[in-house]
Structures are given as C-alpha cells and as structure tokens.
Amino acid sequence: MFMIFGIPGPLLFGQVLLGLINGAFYAMLSLGLAVIFGMLNIINFAHGALFMMGAFCSWMLLNYAGIGYFPSMILAPLIIGVFGIVLEKTVISRLYKLDHLYGLLLTFGLALVIEGLFRNFYGSSGLPYRIPEFLTGATNLGFMYMPNYRGWVVLVAVVVCFSTWAIIEKTSLGATLRAATENAPLVQAFGVNVPRLITLTYGGGVALAAFAGVLAAPIYSVNPNMGTNFINTVFAVVVIGGMGSILGSVITGFALGVIEGLTKVFWPQASATVVFLVMVIVLLTRPRGLFGKTA
Q: Are 40 and 201 contacting, i.e. CB atoms less than 8 angstroms apart?
C-alpha cells in the first residue's frame, strides 16, 4: 500500500472523493442561493427545506407512481420549481422592497413549517432510496475504487453548475436577468415582463435545490432534516464565494468540499469547523467574498 504524507493512498483519495461529493451538493445548493440573491436580493433560508422536498418528491414518484430515478430527475425539480413559483407569487414578492432581514426571517419560518409537516407525516428516521441498477458497484481507478453513483453525482453537478453559469453570464437571457436586477423600470420599458422574469428566476433557483435533492436521495436517507445538515455550510460557501456570484459559489463549493475532506484526514477535530474558519478569514481580508464585486 503506497503512502502520501504518511497517509495510506486509498484513504487519502477516498476522502478527496467524499469531499468532492459533499462539494457537489454545496456547489448546487449555493448556486441556487446565489441565483435567487443575485437576481432577487432575497436571502432564501428555505433553500435547505426545498432541497429536502426534491428528495422526497423523487421518493414519492418512485414509491407511489412507480416513476424511476432518471425521469424523476426531470419531474421532481419541475414540480418543486412550480411550488417555488407559487411561493414567490403569494408570499416572497411582498418582501422585495423591504430590508433583507424580513426575507431571511420569512424564509426561515417557511423552512420550519415545511420540515415540520414532513416530519409529522414521515417521521425523522429516514427512508431508503435505491441506487439505479446500472450505477451500482464501483470502478477500479488503480489507486482506489470509486463508487459509480458517487462519480455520477460529481459529473452531473459539474455539468449543471457550469451550464447554469454559462446561461446567466454568456447568453442574452442572462444579460436581461442581470439588467433587470440593476434597473428594472428601464428593462420593462423595452417590453420585458420583469415580474414574470423574477418569478421564473425564483422558480429556477428552487428547481436547482430540488435537483440536488434528487441526486442526494440515494446517498443520504430521505428525511426531513437532510436540508438542515447542509444549509449552514452552504450559506458559508455563498459568503466566501461572494453573495450573488454564480461562479464564486460553484468554485468555492467544490473547493471547500475537498478542503473539508482533507481536513478529516490530517486534522479530524477541525473538520466540522474548517469551512467557517475559512469564512472568518475571507471576511476579515475580503469582506465581499473571493469573487464578489467591488463597490
């Protein structure tokens, strides 16, 4: 068995893989948060609950309707995205002209209500979701065995995250979205339905969270608390990357996942706090975040 820095190679690479998997979820969740904050100026504390709803929706489609994993990757985000649109039209839209604190408190309350309802119906022990047949097993990479499903999660997360970044930063639709956040009346004067654009943006951010939930369902038990386990770290990722920065959220999510994984090897006691330590250092040296725009 080969060693790296006195650590068995398979153990080290296994922790890097684990970090990449966690980083994939950090990146996708923080991406949705960054889209919503960057376009709507709302700090969406309900994001973890919506991530959980995506996992539960996928589980329900399988167990109640017989719809498998891959169709649910499309259907579950669409269903939860529509729920997000209804939420935005009925509740969230009333907060746009108010201080950020009101949005944070409202979405925090919504998260508690959603998680409480699912806990009442399904309990807290967790529900299993089987891995799709052809993604079971592992691949021998020579230096370690990589579980096929976990490799799939990392690959899909990279594709989704950078595709979302490209749409927002490199297309005319993304340019319209960014312009609407800077000067909504002017964009509306050119015939763009800005309220509808904002609603669809919120729905898209929610759908990203639900998509991450579908990917997470076979790895973590589907339970009402699964979003709570991620959301604090995800908010730290968004702050480190820069509030509203799409690329910052993606890169920081993956990077911090790997850092967290390596910390479990070299300094296990600090693995639960290393992300927040990085956040403190970044805020002290670059308050706007690593990729945040300067004033």
A: yes
pLDDT tens track for 63-112: 999 898 999 999 999 999 999 999 999 988 888 777 878 888 899 999 99
Number of H helices, E strands in the chain: 11, 4
Q: What is the pTM of this model?
A: 0.89
- Smallest Cα–Cα separation from 153: which of 206, 218, 229, 208? 218
| 100 CA to centre of own chain | 20
Minimal CA–CA distance to 33: which of 20, 58, 19, 51? 51
Instruction: Give the helix/strand (H/E) hosting 9.
Output: helix 9-40
Q: At what angle do helices 228-241 and 274-285 cross, to 10 degrees?
A: 30
Domain residue spans in the chain? 41-225, 227-286
Separation CA 80–CA 75 (nearest Å): 9
Tokens of 18: 């684990």
